[in-house]
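Why predict the complex rather than its parts? Because the way molecules touch one another can change local conformation, and only a joint prediction can capture that. The input here totals 567 residues.
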Amino acid sequence: MRADAIAQYMIWKKWPRWYVVRRDTPEDQDYAAQVKRSAARYGGKVVEDHIYRLPPGARNLDSGHQQVQQQIPMETESAPDHDVVWVINSEDDFGDYLMYRTALPRPVVGTQGLQATAWDKSYTESGGMHFQNAIPRLADRPPVERDYTAWLAFRALADAAMKSGKVTPKAVKRYMLSDDFKLEAFKGQALSFRTWDHQMRQPIILGGGTRVPVTTSPQEGFLHQYYLTDTLGFDKPESKCKFK
Amino acid sequence: MTSNSLAAACATALLLIAVPASAATIYVSNEKDNTVTVIDSETLKPINTIKTARRPRGIVLSPDFKELFVAAGDGDIIDVIDTETMEVTRTLESGPDPELMAIDPAGEIIYIANEDDSLVTIMDIKSGDVLAQVPVGVEPEGMAVSPDSKYTVATSESTSMAHVIDNATNKLIANVLVDSRPREAKFTADGKELWVSSEVGGTISVIDPKTWKVIKKISFEVPGVRPEQLQPVGMDFARDGKILFSPLGPSNRVAVIDTAKKEVIDYILVGQRPWHGELGPEGKKYYVANGLTNDVTVIDVDSLKAEKSVPVGRLPWGVAIKP
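Output of the joint prediction:
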């Protein structure tokens, strides 16, 4: 879903050529596979799948940025023509080095730079200010994605119990997976669960580091016969999930 | 007090009869510009732009049309604009994040939804004194006072309820569960029905104030438009209550509902993301604010046709009209 959310925006921007820079951890391999899948779905192209091998080292150093400033242009100068750098760095040890330092001036998207997230501290639409204010009140810090998803989980349960008038796990679950379940969660549209893999359909915020969100996906023009949000992630015919 | 305001109302009525039909004044709150655009209804030209505190959204006139109340969500204040001088003459300490307001028919008390604090603030309009604060559900937004002034209703967007306050005691007497993210509440003129729009649920619930039970839910369907985009927000009765206009946000349409049958009879294409509108003088035109296209669409109430679009400020939110 995250890769699709970014990919749709890249296509909308007419930036279809993606230079992937990543480490080779299993997590990063998985994300890279998702980016390739998104490219195939939406007409993008991974021009090179580049493995970044420099050791991360310590991030906070005296005279630290000078070396990075030298290294990153060298690391990226042999890339084929590309519109964006798609960094995949789940361990978060080098991704931030890419921004403003690549050989060619290119935006950075992925796990750093422009990120796809269920929640961002810049997001204020559809009543979102309420959540932005609630977390600092409770925890004395701005909200992060995990705050939102945890809240979303409890809210889904509470809302299903309240709207269905039922409290047994079986009945609540049945209601949550039914067409009647329409969860309001500051995304400007009802959220619900996909019956085939129990993933939550939701618009994804693209942001990170900016004081206003850049956009939300699904993007205009990506159509689906039932839910626009089902253009993100694995749709019913594509899913291999099975519940016993 | 009541006889005084009655006298004032009579005087205003006489004044209206004495003066030949003149243009009405349309006020539009611009959420992103921190202004109110003032438009002449005859020429449909802006005649003034009034600066307000930050993030003006809810906009209502006093029953005598002398004062305009603008809820500034980020300013944590309500600006009171003198409709003669078109200047902010005083402010009301509304409490944090005021969004929508309702004024009782006598024009004495203002009921304010404090979105961020899950409160309804009840305030004396003249003195600005807080009379009471009533805790309601999370994210209160829509506010309505019943025509007999007995009840005030607040809708809570996160809790999905219409909360009913008894105005004699300022206590909650009922909580009515409706569909997700209720935005606005309106009583019919006879007070026999309470209508509540659910934006994300995509329905309008009609509630019987005798029992505070939902008696009918109205949903929307437009061929070629995705169901999740049919999001009713504002509600305004027209043609003496025979029809109701409801702007449907991201579907860029205003639904027209037959209030007797409780069925949708028409959809009118307007600008992008209409949320709130208001009826013009004698109920002949309906003016709806389109948030994303920065304009107001003028709809003819008889023909149900969109006639014109009037540019206003950025992110227009609500409309109030002084005859």
